[in-house]
Amino acid sequence: MRPVTLVALAPLLGATDLLIKALGLSLVALPLLALLGVLATLLQRLDAKLRTLVLLMAACAVLSLADLLFQAWALELRDALGIFLPLLLVVLLQPPLTMRDGLRQGGLFAALALLLGALRECLGSGTLLGHAEWLFGPAAGNWTLQLEGFTGLHVFGFAPGAFILLGVLWALARCVLPFPDSKA
Amino acid sequence: MNKRTLAVAGVVLLALIAVVVGIERLLSEQIASERQAAQERALLDLLAPGSYDNHPLAAPIALPDSERLGLPAPAFAYLASRNGEPSAVLLPARGTGYEGNIDLLLAVSPAGQLLAVKVLSEHETPGLGDLSNAAKSPWLRGFFGHSSSDTDWRVKADGGQFDQMAGATVTSRAVSKAVQQGLRYFDAHKPLLLKQVTP
C-alpha cells in the first residue's frame, strides 16, 4: 500500500485557527481528492503528462466552483479562508492514483484539519465553534462554547502554534501507531 | 506531446470553462444578494440578532447639522425596528483621536441609552489605545447602558466616571466624548430619528 502523503500543508496549517474554517476547508478538500482519485482511475490509459494536465484542470474547476458556492452562501467564511481555499491546488503535487487513494488522502486531511481546528480554537481563543453562523446561518450564532475563565494563548492562533501542535500530534502518532517506514 | 494529446487537453479545458462560467451565471444573483447581506451583517452586528426585523440600511435618515457629531454632511442614521416599533437607532459619530479621526457607530435605544458601540475606522497606535478588536473590548462595554446625562462622561484622568485605557488617554477621551456627543445629538433629534418606522 502506498503510504499516504500530505502535501497540502499550507492550507492545513494556515486556515485551521477556527474549527469552522477547518470544517469549510475539509468540505472542499475531501470531495476534491475523491474526485481526483476517480478521474485518475478513469484516465489510467492516457499518458501520464496528459493525465496530470487533465487532473490539474479538473482541480481548478472544482476549486472555482467551491469558491462560487462559498461566495453565494458563506461569504464571510470564504473571506476568512482567503488564499488557502484556492491553495488546496497544491494537492496535485502528488495526486491520488485511485479513488481509494483519494479518499484516504482526503480523509487524512479532513481529520487532521478538524483536529487541529478544534485544538487550536480551544487553546488559542478559549472557544469552540466560534463563528458557526458563517457556515450554518444566523441561527448558529449562539453555538459558540466558551471555556470558562480561559481566553487562550494567542500563539496557537498563528502558524507557529499550528506547527508546534502538528509536531506534537505527529510525535504522539509515531509513539502509538506502528509505522511501516520506521526502520530506524 | 503530440497533437492528439493537445486536442484532448484543449477540449477538456473548454468544457470545464463552460461549466464554471455557466454556474457562475446561475449563481450571480445569489452571490450579489449574499454580498449585500454580508455587508449588512457586518454593520449591524452591534444589534442583538432578532432585535429587529426590518432592513435598516435600506432607509437612511439624513442627519441635519451633522457637524455636532463631528461629521461632514451628508451623514446618515438608520432605524432598526421590530414589529413596527423602533428598537434602536444606529447613529454615526466621529472623535478626534491621537492619530486622526475615530469613526464610531452607536446603537441607541429609543429611551436614549447606549446599547452598543462599534469602531468603524481608527488610526491609533497599535497596542496603545488599540480599538481594532473593539468587539472584545471590555473598555467600550463600560459605556453600555448609559444615556447622555446620567453619568459624568469624562475619563477618570479628567475627574469623570470612566477609566481610560492605559497609555491612551487621548484616544479614550476622544471616544468617550464622541459617544456622549452622539447621545446628546440623539436627545436633541429624537422625533426625527424615531419617526420613520418602515413597515
TrEMBL record, chain A:
Question: Which stretches are annotated as coiled coil?
Answer: none
UniProt topology in membrane: Multi-pass membrane protein
Where mainly found? Answer: membrane
Enumerate the UniProt keywords alphabetically: Cell inner membrane, Cell membrane, Membrane, Translocase, Transmembrane, Transmembrane helix, Transport
Name of the protein described by the UniProt record: Electron transport complex subunit E
Q: Which GO terms describe its cellular component?
A: endomembrane system; plasma membrane
Which residue ranges run through the membrane? 24-43, 55-74, 80-97, 109-132, 152-173
Subcellular compartments: Endomembrane system
TrEMBL record, chain B:
Q: Is Membrane one of the keywords?
A: no
**What are the recorded Gene Ontology BP terms?**
electron transport chain
Which InterPro entries does the record cross-reference, listed alphabetically? FMN-bd, Ion_transpt_RnfG/RsxG
- Keywords assigned by UniProt? Electron transport, Flavoprotein, FMN, Phosphoprotein, Transport
Q: Which GO terms describe its cellular component?
A: plasma membrane
Q: Which residues form the FMN-binding domain?
A: 97-186
> From what organism does this protein derive?
Pseudomonas turukhanskensis
- What molecular function does GO assign, one term? FMN binding
**What's this protein's name?**
Electron transport complex subunit G
Q: Per its UniProt record, what SMART domains does this chain match? A: FMN_bind (SM00900)
Q: Which domain of life is it from?
A: Bacteria
